[in-house]
Amino acid sequence: MPSDRLDATFTALADPTRRAILARLAEGEATVLELAEPFAMSLPAISKHLKVLERAGLISRGRDAQRRPCRLEAAPLKEASAWAEHHVRVWEERLDRLDDYLRELQGAEKKQGPRK
């Protein structure tokens, strides 16, 4: 995943309102008015959040007669998840190696006996 796309995804996910919008869209498509209902903010403010999500590729807007429903686009979320999983594995491996090293040190101390 290109770094700028990953940056855009994490930037979009950093805001709780945008995460709530994505959670709602995970249930199915919705219009801007439907997405705005649970929030105490203006429609222009919701539209700004939607633009951030759209630029990050996390949502798309369709056209259904007079309606312009928004829908979730999962690909950027999958890419961000893969990035995070990779780093979790790297750190788990590092911590496992550290744990092994500490066990070796403890074993060496036991063999040497108490220090004077």
TrEMBL record:
Pfam families: HTH_20. InterPro entries: ArsR-like_HTH (IPR011991), HTH_ArsR_DNA-bd_dom (IPR001845), WH-like_DNA-bd_sf (IPR036388), WH_DNA-bd_sf (IPR036390). Residues 1-92 form the HTH arsR-type domain. One of its GO terms (molecular function) is DNA-binding transcription factor activity. It comes from Archangium gephyra. Keywords: DNA-binding. This is DNA-binding transcriptional ArsR family regulator.
